[in-house]
Design brief:
Blueprint lengths: L13 H11 L11 H6 L11 H7 L6 E6 L6 H7 L1 H7 L2 E6 L3 H10 L6 E4 L2 H11 L7 H10 L2 H6 L1 E2 L2 E2 L2 E7 L2 E4 L1 H7 L7 H13 L17 H14 L2 H8 L8 H14 L35 E2 L21 E4 L10 E11 L4 H10 L2 H9 L18 H10 L5 E4 L1 H4 L2 H16 L4 H11 L3
Parallel strand pairs: 1-2, 1-3, 10-11
Antiparallel strand pairs: 3-10, 4-5, 6-10, 7-8, 7-9
């Protein structure tokens, strides 16, 4: 699944970028450690281990140790993560074992309850972090080196997302921007369609596509145990545009009920697209097919002009077939999801992962510190299709246009940015009843009934 993940089609991507970066380090790289399969995965370049001396000096001899990672970031998006750990592994002697799952949210809690958590989990929901900390006490507070990196390279808001009851647990990892609509530039050009700059223009464009005999939208919300989450993103993006950021904040903090009339209005506005039989679901079927269409496949009919628009985050990029050019004049690109109410400006919805540890062994803390810093974030950016709110990343290191555009939005002080609300809600709601409620809504349940059921499920 692609929930909260990012890896796009890059000009220099994956292993090739890492090979170039490692080769640039020169031939005087000290002790390379165990080169093994990971070294070959990195293209065989030499690593300058002087860049990693800090970790062994701070945390001691790490040779022969192991750190296990558990994540939502599944193939093919996971490979650039795995590649980015090569230098750390070679120079510290730590074996980083990466595991991912489409059923992460449920299985992580099962593993914690069973006394077998991973060393580190990449959590895509601050709300889930709060639930795990308060219900289990299993997460370990972040060490000083991690906190120092976060204080230096991230805004206070991002640090707050990883803090529970005053204790800092989880550093931000990657970030993403969700307020995008993917389209095929050539299809727009062939049909004389223009990029809409307002919501009204986007609806008018949708009507024009219908009049021309096409189906304007394709969407899918099937994602294993996390089925439903793409619809929650759609609702959140619309709420920011119809009710504004203050109401949005009140909603996820439960200062207003989940079924507040302003939320009902936002869901119904989203339904003008998602539940409109004339608008969806291009390439797949009727409205109800959205519930069974895999999120990874949902935008692909754009390439065949079976649909023309697909609302999805920056991290959708790796799902396009190999060889697909992502550019303004390429096979696919994305435009900003237009505003609705002028008074609320141009809101940006985003999210990200956070690294939480369940063990305080030296090798675990060393790895935590590494991925919280600017050095790793810049390396990861060169691998393509990945974005971070880490201000230590040079924008020139972003290899593809969607990633760079996303990073610019994240670093724009004037942007009205809000984190994914479902990720900030209690886990039972944000990663539970909100997801399932959206499935019920897509398959026929009315808005008020669904939102009331979710409100009744909010924990005391």
């Amino acid at each position: 699944m692609v929930h909260k993940t990012r890896k796009g089609t890059a000009a220099i991507g994956g292993v090739a970028a890492l090979a170039l970066l490692l080769a640039a380090c020169g031939d005087d790289g000290g002790d390379d450690g165990d080169s093994g399969d990971d070294a070959s995965a990195g293209g065989g370049g030499d690593v300058d281990c002087a860049d990693f001396e800090h970790y062994t000096e701070t945390y001691g001899d790490l040779e022969g140790t192991e750190v296990t990672i558990y994540s939502t970031i599944t193939p093919p998006e996971d490979q650039s993560h795995i590649d980015s750990y090569v230098g750390f592994e070679e120079c510290t002697g730590v074996d980083v074992v990466y595991e991912s799952s489409d059923e992460f949210e449920a299985q992580l809690q099962v593993r914690i309850q069973g006394g077998n958590p991973p060393d580190i989990a990449y959590l895509p929901q601050p709300g889930l972090l709060q639930t795990i900390v308060r219900d289990t006490g299993a997460p370990v507070p972040a060490p000083a080196g991690v906190e120092e990196n976060v204080d230096e390279y991230f805004s206070p808001d991002w640090k707050e997302y990883g803090t529970v009851d005053g204790t800092f647990y989880a550093a931000p990892l990657g970030s993403n921007v969700k307020s995008f609509v993917w389209y095929a530039p050539s299809a727009f050009e062939d049909n004389g369609y223009e990029i809409p700059e307002t919501w009204a223009e986007m609806i008018a464009l949708s009507d024009q596509i219908v009049a021309d005999g096409g189906i304007p939208w394709c969407q899918g919300i099937a994602s294993g145990d996390a089925t439903g989450w793409p619809a929650t993103d759609f609702i959140e993006d619309v709420l920011l545009r119809t009710a504004g950021p203050d109401v949005y904040d009140q909603w996820y903090q439960h200062e207003i009920p989940f079924n507040d009339p302003q939320v009902v209005d936002a869901v119904n506005t989203a339904g003008e697209i998602l539940k409109n039989p004339d608008y969806v679901n291009g390439g797949f079927g009727d409205v109800s097919s959205i519930a069974t269409t895999d999120v990874n496949q949902a935008g692909l009919p754009i390439l065949e002009q079976q649909c023309y628009m697909h609302r999805a985050a920056s991290f959708y990029a790796p799902n396009w077939p190999e060889g697909t050019e992502i550019a303004e004049d390429g096979d696919v690109y994305a435009f900003y999801l237009p505003p609705i109410e002028e008074e609320f400006g141009d809101p940006v919805l985003g999210a990200g992962e956070f690294t939480v540890a369940f063990d305080d062994r030296p090798e675990v803390q060393a790895f935590q510190e590494y991925v919280a810093g600017a050095e790793w974030a810049n390396l990861k950016a060169t691998l393509g299709g990945w974005v971070s709110a880490n201000t230590g990343v040079d924008l020139d290191n972003y290899q593809d246009p969607i990633s760079r555009l996303s990073a610019e939005l994240l670093q724009d002080d004037d942007a009205v940015f809000r984190f994914d609300a479902s990720d900030l809600m209690p886990g039972d709601v944000g990663a539970g009843s909100f997801w399932t409620g959206m499935v019920d809504w897509i398959t026929g349940a009315d808005t008020e009934t669904v939102l009331t059921q979710i409100e009744e499920n909010w924990p005391e």
